Structure formats: C-alpha cells, structure tokens
C-alpha cells in the first residue's frame, strides 16, 4: 500500500491556519507524506483549499475521511479511521457501513486503507467527539490492537495520544505483537528527542500540533525520525 514505507508524517488540520512559508517548509522538509485530517470544524471547502496549496509541492498527500461529505478527490491515498475504544458502534462500524451503502461503488479501493485507532488521551478532541473509553490498561490496549491486526487484518493500527506524549514502552509492546499491520504513533511530539523515542517504538511517527505551535521544532523531527529504526 501507499503508506508502507512511511517513517515520518506531518498531519495538518484543514480547520487550522498555516501560512504559506510554513507550509512550504513542511512540504520541503523531507517528510514522507502529509496527512490531512481533524476532529472538528473540518469542511469540504477547507479540505479542498488545503489540498490546492499542498499540490504546489511534490510531497505525497493522504486524507483521513471521518465523514463521506469530506471525501475530497485528488489525494494520493485515503484512510478510513475506526475508533476501536469509542463507546458507540457508529465510530467503528456504523458510520462506515452507512457510507458504503451509499458510496461504496465510488471508493478508490486501491488507494484506500482502514486505520484502527486506539485513543488514549481523554482530554483530546477526538476522545470527546467519539466518547472514547481512554482509561485502558496495557492489556486492554494490546487486546484492541490484536483484534485489529489478527482478526480484522486492518493494515494500520494507530495509537493516538493527541496532545500529550505517550507511553513508549506500551507503543513498543504493541508493535512487537503486530503480525501484519503497520503501527502509527501520534501525540505530543514537540522535540527531536521525543521524535527519536517515538521512532524507536513505532513504524510511523505522526507530528501534528508542533507544526502550528513551534515550526522549527517540528521540522527538526524529520531528521530525528530518519536517524532511528524501531527496536
């Protein structure tokens, strides 16, 4: 699949402002891809606008589709998130089945992949929106990830700490038990050292908020991730 070689990814939110100079630096940083998505305030028009700006550069771009109304054509790849620890089935199967009932014939399956999210920061926007049960112990997290990897054969497992730096021992444990899924990690990476830690634990490191809060620190994470290999 299109994401299999990704080590470092910047995640941009269509609902957040980013100036042209910072966007250019992100796209020319050497990152493997830009992932577009957000938990709230995302619209079709905002997503189209961000894609148009990204297409001025050569960086691969992928879109997380959280609602069929936000399925903007023209990306290099598409992810369909499933929040495994959401309280309501809508967030891991209900909305997906409803969307496929209406639009399944239009899905570009060759560049579309499922993401099995486990959301672990209860204060994050994604946890609030999905009503995720975030008070999980390590065995709970491992069970969710094995469900996605072994039973459902989902190609991406995503440990999401959104806004706070996570437990790298847990991330490493999860990666060690996956049989075929690629492990994405996102959350709280604001320095090169944190990026290196995450790169040693996960297959793919996602850097998001730092792009908006401290672009220089965010850009330093690219080389930091490339300098490490998972152990």
Structural class by secondary-structure content:
alpha/beta
Would you identify the CATH architecture?
Answer: Alpha-Beta Barrel
Task: Give the helix proportion (percent range).
Answer: 25-40%
Report the major sheet. 8 strands, parallel, barrel
> How far is the first residue's CA from the last residue's CA?
23 Å
Fourth-tier CATH superfamily name: FMN-linked oxidoreductases
Characterize the structure shown.
The protein is 37% helix and 18% strand. Strand 7, helix 7 (192-201) and strand 8 form a beta-alpha-beta unit. The model has no long low-confidence stretch (mean pLDDT 96). The protein has one domain (8-226): FMN-linked oxidoreductases (TIM Barrel, Alpha-Beta Barrel), CATH 3.20.20. It is an alpha/beta fold and 231 residues long.
Blueprint of the fold:
Layout: E1 8-12, H1 20-27, E2 33-36, H2 44-54, E3 61-64, E4 77-83, H3 94-103, E5 112-119, H4 125-130, H5 138-151, E6 156-160, H6 168-177, E7 182-186, H7 192-201, E8 204-207, H8 209-213, H9 215-226
Parallel strand pairs: 1-2, 1-8, 2-3, 3-4, 4-5, 5-6, 6-7, 7-8
Helix pairs in contact: 5-6, 6-7, 7-9
